[in-house]
């Protein structure tokens, strides 16, 4: 047994098994609550003072608190990393009022995925020494590059995607670096909102640093840092005891795919994961990405192999929470640095989707990094006999740009959510946003600011994958343009669907139509004329379990609620309905007959059937194969 493992096993523990690490348990609760409060205060300040719709209204930003050992202490959301800052600026040389900035993907140690994500970091001081860091990063409107929004769909290098800024000191002891700010705003098509957002983020993090400094002043550095150790250790032990113990030992393999990269014709870009579980090992989970496709020509790459993959460990770990005993317990489990010692990541050689070589483009890296959440969920579903949700929505950016009613240029970009996957105990959720706390842009605000009308914003009927537990529904949104404009989209799952599991069916894919013209998922500048309607339907989550086992009364309720059509009830669920639309009834005899007929069409040996349903788009890109070899149990 290693020395570190022996030390961990010998630590004293509280009555519920949590290690105390010498910290006062009451103070641990106080410190943990203070950290959460400071994080929320920072995010609230940014939301109330930022200028861009993406930050202020869509809330596509995060805050995080890290200790002086660079460990993430808060767990409500993900955040970037402090490693690139201390790599380039020694901690001993930092001073109160300093603010550091970076957005360079390849110099961020894996914490930044694409150039529109701008990150500010502020050191926290106590008795003249750095004791922690407060950080915020968010997706900003524009940082230059080939197209408005800095996300060119056919970029072939990062140089087309905008201004790259390695770690710099943006504020020096409270004095802003005006030259750096001028360079950044000069390179942006939206200079005022960029300047306002950066000012909001810097000021909010400085405020958060003062709040956190007060915590150290009140209780002392030694006591507070002991609480930090306890918070992280508690997470490590909780995940090991409550979650990882539910994964059978052995090796489990699965893969999923991005469908296009904006340059080549659509094809399967593989993201493969081999999960090895050994509960007796010091590091019980090993995730190996060998088998992942070569880096793409277009911008779907993600630079994940830096700092031993520490960002990806914290990014993927929330999927493990689905193994909790109850949904309520799942909601209680935060993800902080405590998950890092539990996971080892093994990356393939340089030059893959996850190990791209500079200057490979990365602006649509969500096609990979968000798909990895589903890959981990899929491999765990195989390992646990289906005790994981089916596939959920993945982020997409849609929007329009042009000249407003007053003739000035505008950019409207929105991150619309979609349906989450059905679970082994419940249906999926409708129109959730995979970015925590993000949201769609309010209709009233949009119509008052930009030259279009929102003529519909509702649920996309039949978009959720059929199942014993149905997948959640996506959005159905219609925009009528009042002036000529250009449409843009960075969206995955426009061919492939969110997969169903354990007999559940795939959800419907993302689709955009402009007056009957169907758009591709990656679009930079498709023209839209005044009076034309843009129809956006986002993805539905996959279904869980056979739809022929769903309670017919629940199917009838879905039809009455407009979530499933009458045709869908009959064709997908085998449920025959009659009566007025407001008072639909189940024809029990006809339903039993129809379900018997549909079951007769199923394979005679379920053991030889794929455990996942990828939808009709998969054969299109796989050369006609109905499923992948890894889909079999």
Question: What structural keywords apply?
Answer:
633 residues; alpha+beta; 5-stranded antiparallel β-sheet; 20% strand; disordered N terminus
Task: Explain briefly what this protein structure is.
The chain is built from 15 helices and 23 strands. By secondary structure, the chain is of the alpha+beta class.
Characterization of this structure:
This protein has 633 residues and is of the alpha+beta class. Helix content is 28%, strand content 20%. It has 15 helices and 23 strands. The chain has helices at 3-10, 25-49, 53-56, 83-88, 178-186, 191-219, 221-243, 310-316, 327-332, 366-384, 443-449, 552-560, 566-573, 588-600, 617-622, and strands at residues 61-67, 99-102, 117-126, 129-139, 168-172, 175-176, 250-258, 269-277, 285-288, 343-346, 396-403, 409-416, 452-459, 475-481, 485-491, 500-501, 511-514, 517-518, 522-528, 533-537, 577-578, 585-586, 612-613. The strands form 6 sheets. A 6-stranded antiparallel β-sheet has the order 1-4-3-2-5-6. The protein has a 5-stranded antiparallel β-sheet with strand order 13-14-20-17-18, with helices on one face. Strands 7-8-9-10 form a 4-stranded mixed β-sheet, covered by helices on one side. A hairpin with a 7-residue loop joins strand 8 (269-277) and strand 9. Helix 2 runs antiparallel to helix 6, helix 2 crosses helix 7 (221-243) and helix 6 crosses helix 7. The longest helix has 29 residues, at 191-219. The protein is globular and about 80 Å long. It starts with a helix and ends in an 11-residue tail after the last helix. Mean pLDDT is 93; it is low at 1-19.
């Amino acid at each position: 047994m290693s020395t570190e493992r022996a030390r961990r096993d010998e630590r004293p523990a509280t009555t519920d098994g949590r290690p105390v690490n010498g910290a006062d348990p009451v103070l641990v609760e106080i410190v943990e609550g203070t950290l959460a409060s400071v994080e929320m205060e920072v995010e609230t300040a940014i939301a109330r003072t930022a200028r861009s719709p993406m930050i202020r209204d869509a809330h596509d930003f995060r805050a995080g608190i890290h200790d002086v050992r660079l460990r993430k202490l808060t767990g409500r959301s993900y955040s970037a990393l402090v490693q690139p800052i201390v790599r380039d600026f020694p901690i001993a040389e930092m001073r109160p009022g300093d603010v550091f900035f970076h957005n360079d993907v390849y110099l961020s140690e894996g914490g930044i995925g694409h150039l529109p994500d701008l990150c500010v970091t502020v050191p926290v001081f106590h008795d003249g020494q750095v004791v922690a860091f407060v950080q915020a990063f968010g997706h900003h409107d524009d940082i230059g590059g080939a197209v408005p929004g800095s996300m060119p769909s056919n970029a072939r290098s990062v140089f087309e995607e905008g201004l790259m800024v390695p770690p710099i000191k943006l504020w020096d002891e409270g004095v802003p670096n005006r030259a750096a700010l001028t360079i950044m705003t000069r390179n942006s098509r939206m200079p005022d909102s960029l300047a306002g957002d950066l000012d909001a983020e810097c000021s909010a993090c400085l405020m958060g640093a003062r709040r956190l400094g007060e915590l150290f002043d009140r209780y002392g550095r030694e006591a507070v840092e002991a609480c930090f150790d306890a918070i992280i250790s508690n997470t490590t032990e909780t995940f090991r005891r409550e979650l990882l113990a539910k994964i059978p030992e052995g090796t489990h393999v699965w893969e999923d795919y991005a469908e296009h990269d904006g340059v080549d014709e659509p094809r399967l870009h593989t993201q493969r994961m081999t999960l090895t579980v050994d509960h007796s090992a010091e590091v019980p989970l090993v995730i190996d990405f060998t088998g992942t496709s070569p880096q793409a020509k277009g911008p779907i790459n993600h630079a994940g192999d830096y700092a031993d993959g520490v960002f990806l460990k914290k990014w993927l770990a929330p999927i493990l929470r689905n193994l909790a005993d109850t949904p309520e317990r799942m909601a209680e489990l935060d993800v902080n640095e405590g998950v890092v010692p539990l996971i080892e990541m093994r990356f393939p050689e340089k030059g893959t989707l996850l190990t791209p070589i500079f200057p490979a483009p990365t602006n649509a890296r969500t096609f990979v990094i968000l798909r990895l959440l589903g890959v981990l969920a899929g491999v765990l579903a195989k390992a646990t006999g289906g005790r994981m949700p089916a596939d959920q929505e993945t982020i997409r950016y849609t929007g329009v740009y042009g000249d407003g009613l007053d003739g000035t240029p505008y950019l409207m970009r929105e991150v619309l959510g979609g349906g989450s996957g059905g679970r082994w105990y419940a249906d999926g959720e409708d129109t959730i946003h995979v970015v925590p706390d993000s949201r769609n842009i309010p209709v009233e605000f949009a119509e008052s600011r930009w030259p279009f009308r929102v003529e519909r914003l509702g649920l996309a009927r039949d978009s959720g994958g059929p199942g014993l537990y149905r997948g959640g529904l996506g959005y159905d949104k219609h925009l009528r343009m009042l002036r000529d404009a250009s449409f843009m989209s960075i969206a995955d799952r426009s061919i492939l669907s969110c997969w169903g599991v354990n007999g559940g069916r795939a959800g419907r894919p993302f689709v955009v139509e402009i007056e009957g013209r169907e758009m591709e998922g990656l679009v930079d500048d498709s023209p839209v004329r005044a009076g034309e309607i843009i129809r956006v339907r986002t993805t539905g989550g996959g279904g869980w379990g056979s739809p022929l086992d769903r309670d017919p009364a629940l199917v009838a309720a879905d039809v009455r609620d407009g979530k499933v059509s009458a045709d869908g009830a009959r064709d997908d669920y085998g449920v025959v309905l009659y009566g007025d639309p407001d008072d639909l009834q189940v024809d029990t005899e006809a339903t039993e007959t129809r379900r018997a007929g549909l079951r007769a069409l199923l394979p005679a040996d379920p053991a030889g059937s794929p455990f996942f349903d990828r939808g009709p788009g998969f054969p299109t890109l796989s050369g006609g194969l109905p499923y992948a070899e890894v889909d079999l149990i």
